[in-house]
């Protein structure tokens, strides 16, 4: 009797397997993998994040800036306490909320343009400097066990901490960026200060922003060239105080470079830079920069006020030092610290959260 060997059952193939087999047999290339999301360019992130953070902080803290500008030029409300809360309350009682927010439009516009351009230019210039001078750039922050010669597999973990920032490159990049932005947005600061320090009149409303701009251009021209019949206290040009603003880029450069140094030290090996550290770095960097460069800010406010009695930076400096001493150059620094530290901390917090949101969305 012949015994036949059991025949193997034919294996069922699904349509997907059949299609894959057909493609393999025919030699057709496999379908390409899905395209990975492209990260957003860093300068675009800095441009958008800086502009957004500056605008939010400007609107939220503008009453403090308005009061500080009044104190710098000597327009203290009669009977007001020399505290920030007392000055804000005094202005609110006499002029209302509109008085506290007088000049907010040119300020918010200038801040929006300034901070966006500032952070974008800073990021671009710093990157170019590091590429141009790679020998002096800091190495990437990798753990010692992440070298290729390591034979163990349990400790070959690279640190996610960003590379150590170079103080010199950061200062140069921030100074150049600040100088460019100072020239571009200086007219907004002049208009802001003129709006804030314009004395309110009971019979007529304060001139509008457009009327104030037309008045300055009509009397001085777009370049602000003064005529022979002008007095020292006459109409001031839109670019009044630009020189001292450009010289004052050290303030922003020192703040930004210090912030990056503090950010590096407060970031752990996993690359985590927590929110409390963002606030601390923003507040600490602002304090150091303000104490070091406050006299220039006071001189800029004095020179940009209406009916300025000084001919220039040197004349104002000599007069203030001779009449009030060196302490006169630091008049109002306590209020300035109270006014500027919280906005700086909040601005860097918003900027860092914006960076995390954009970069996180790009990697999904």
Automatic annotation (TrEMBL):
It comes from the Eukaryota. GO terms for cellular component: membrane. PROSITE patterns: SOLCAR (PS50920). The chain crosses the membrane at residues 100-121, 171-191. Pfam families: Mito_carr (PF00153). Residues 1-40, 133-162 are annotated as: Disordered. It is a multi-pass membrane protein. The keyword Coiled coil does not apply. It is found in: Membrane. SUPFAM superfamilies: Mitochondrial carrier. Solcar repeats lie at residues 41-128, 165-265, 273-357. Signal peptide: none annotated. InterPro entries: MCP_dom_sf, MCP_transmembrane, SLC25A32-like. This is Carrier superfamily protein.
